[in-house]
């Protein structure tokens, strides 16, 4: 998260990226006293306009496109692939760009140095998340670890996650990943045309087993469907119109029967789905613990650790952590692995080189295991290039600045939403759009893994687990199957289009390919 639909959710409103200024909060409490009609928009408009005049003698902000009064740069934010648009602006405005959106500041960090200087060196003030009214307050994602606000609750979530996913603990998760890797390879061989489904099943099965002790044999499993429904409803209902509530939190008080309240009615349906996704697997584990049939898993371990004295808040936090795992892990892992397959289809010479290395090191009588990783440097370069060429979450998840800051003589206002443009940072090399694993051989380029999992105290806590899973799948595919271009009815090779879906997760668009077992 960046994961999946939670990241997508934030993406859909990322431009916004609403900041609850004290001003808007004042407006909210003031106007909530009034009955709801068309007045609120007028009041908000006037107060925002006045505040604009009042504070227009601002200190020097970082450079950025010239904003319109009140609306700011809202009309200039690239919608389809904001990461690419922001990267293009880098030449004109520099590494740190300021955009204003309805008086909120959005800071885009286009360089690794600026991301490290701010999100890491000053992580004490850059580790909050923006207030997501639609997602958290209306759609029920308020317990999600990806969105939890900085403070004691954030630390508790990180502690809970860390117990299972820290570098050392993640070693004990390998058997699940190895078993599911073999299932994935079998699926690739048996029904190669469904390779993307096999990747999805792998990602779902590993995370569901670890989180709830659940064995997943197909993506039609009840728990997967619950999570998918919550995710897809969230994305469908996160329309730009619905996202207005992020700009004007007062709108959340509109009665559901009012004509303007369609977004609230939709959000209520989403909330039901999110609650079911959080509650049903959690209650199952609790029941199994009572009957002594629970498989040890993240949820059972956290419940055990809280013991008899688990408070309502503890249970909500455990549910939130567990419920976030699928959302954060599935989409991102799928994106990386499908990108790997696409890159191998497009670049058979790289795939062949990886196979030659594999055959030399492992031979043909066994499958590769993670212990072989250090002996397969070319495969390592291929994976680094996969992470670089198409970073799964190109803008990460927005951070929020908790107090005003000054950076390179520029003023960054308190409450700014700060976005790390991971995509732009990974373009800092020659011919960046070319897939070229050899560029990592010399070791003078930054390891993309340093960036693709985000920065500072919010850095992805699932990174060790995610990277091990990605390596196992890639290594076993290299060892066991041939991947090549599909052919049309004339026997001609089909060159897949290199295109990515717009959204917070840059999924490769579906593409054909040919997969066969290695002789
Ligand atoms: C290759 C796959 C993955 C990628 C590329 C990825 C990337 C990211 C990114 C960019 C962030 C935002 C970091 C920031 O705010 O600076 C994030 C957050 C997060 N990721 Fe991952 N992730 C992946 C897999 C996973 C997995 C497998 C899990 C769970 C086991 C996970 C759990 C989380 C959680 C809980 C957060 C929120 C952390 C917080 O807000 O404190 N991710 N991830």
From TrEMBL:
<dbReference type="InterPro" id="IPR050364">
    <property type="entry name" value="Cytochrome_P450_fung"/>
</dbReference>
<dbReference type="InterPro" id="IPR036396">
    <property type="entry name" value="Cyt_P450_sf"/>
</dbReference>
<feature type="binding site" description="axial binding residue">
    <location>
        <position position="460"/>
    </location>
    <ligand>
        <name>heme</name>
    </ligand>
</feature>
<keyword id="KW-0408">Iron</keyword>
<keyword id="KW-0503">Monooxygenase</keyword>
<keyword id="KW-1133">Transmembrane helix</keyword>
<keyword id="KW-0472">Membrane</keyword>
<dbReference type="InterPro" id="IPR002401">
    <property type="entry name" value="Cyt_P450_E_grp-I"/>
</dbReference>
<keyword id="KW-0560">Oxidoreductase</keyword>
<dbReference type="InterPro" id="IPR017972">
    <property type="entry name" value="Cyt_P450_CS"/>
</dbReference>
<dbReference type="InterPro" id="IPR001128">
    <property type="entry name" value="Cyt_P450"/>
</dbReference>
<protein>
    <submittedName>
        <fullName>Cytochrome P450</fullName>
    </submittedName>
</protein>
<keyword id="KW-0812">Transmembrane</keyword>
<dbReference type="GO" id="GO:0004497">
    <property type="term" value="F:monooxygenase activity"/>
</dbReference>
<dbReference type="GO" id="GO:0016705">
    <property type="term" value="F:oxidoreductase activity, acting on paired donors, with incorporation or reduction of molecular oxygen"/>
</dbReference>
<comment type="pathway">
    <text>Secondary metabolite biosynthesis.</text>
</comment>
<keyword id="KW-0479">Metal-binding</keyword>
<keyword id="KW-0349">Heme</keyword>
<dbReference type="Pfam" id="PF00067">
    <property type="entry name" value="p450"/>
</dbReference>
<dbReference type="GO" id="GO:0005506">
    <property type="term" value="F:iron ion binding"/>
</dbReference>
<dbReference type="GO" id="GO:0020037">
    <property type="term" value="F:heme binding"/>
</dbReference>
<comment type="similarity">
    <text>Belongs to the cytochrome P450 family.</text>
</comment>
<feature type="transmembrane region" description="Helical">
    <location>
        <begin position="30"/>
        <end position="52"/>
    </location>
</feature>
